[in-house]
Write a structure and sequence with these properties.
By secondary structure, the chain is of the alpha/beta class. It has a single domain, classed as Alpha-Beta Barrel (TIM Barrel), CATH 3.20.20.190. The protein is built from nine helices and nine strands. An eight-stranded parallel barrel has the order 1-2-4-5-6-7-8-9, surrounded by six helices. Helix 1 packs parallel to helix 3. It is globular.
Amino acid sequence: MSVTALNYPVCIAHRGVKELYPENTLVSFQAALNGNAQMIELDVALSADRQLVVIHDETLDRTTDSKGSVSKKSLEELRKLDAGGWFDSRFKGERIPTLQEVIDLVGKDSVLNIEIKKEYFEESDSEDTIEKQVLRHIIKNNLLDYSIVSSFQIKYLQRLRKLEPNLNLAYVSLEAADQSRIDACLSLGVLSWNAWHETLGKEHVEMLHNAGLKVFSFTIQTREEFEKVRNSGVDGIFADNLSRFQPLMSPWQ
């Protein structure tokens, strides 16, 4: 599934199928593929030895059997941790995957929405910054039209746009849309505004659509939240359980 072939509105698998499987693991991403997800969202972080790993939090405490900062452990150390047993004993032994392992699993069967965590931003702009490594993985695997890179940190998007004019970008925001940030997104050729559902009203979605931006809303948990964002006219939702909302994703109009 390429970005240009997406059928809107899109139900996006948030960290895989995290309601039913341990988030950001290969088993969770496989469940998303089994559920015919058009798009799968994941989070990337840097290990102590500058390797790309897939995990949401800065620390290991919530989703592994260890504690401490992700960035303080080498890839070898991270690979020894159990990233599934905390969720359910059935998943004991699941590992923190590398970005390449997720790419190898998903391939071009679903769009990868790769969120770069703002905590890993570095002013130095060296050759092994997290955003440059993500871009190299995308290009190496011929995924320019099969991936979107998203972040709360617009500086990542600015750097990536200078490096690759054809990369699909998304700006993530907890704040309501305003013209200055919309203008910043337009100057970068951003594909979508990924918004917290609480900040989205119909007027915000219309403003973003009028600017030519797609609007994806996170993270929808209840039918009430779903109805609200559907009525606002969003182009897609992030959901922890595809099976709850995917059957409802017929065209709004």
